Amino acid sequence: xxxxxxxxxxxxxxxxxLAPALTASNVDRDVRGREKPxxxxxxxxxxxxxxxxxPKKKKA
Length: 60
Prior knowledge:
Distance between the termini: 56 Å
Shape: elongated
Mean pLDDT: 80
Helix content: under 10%
Number of helices: 0
Strand content: 25-35%
Low-confidence stretches: none
Number of domains: 1
Order of helices and strands: EEEE
């Protein structure tokens, strides 16, 4: 594939409960410049799990 031709961006989905923990996200397009690149561009996210409440424990 030529540069930026046939590019596929993978998606990461968050639940509404995790959304407040999202601190960063990006698409790594530089991998497309490597020899025999995939047509997918990796995505990544960073989460700060301290920003969300811990799940409640169920009573036995």
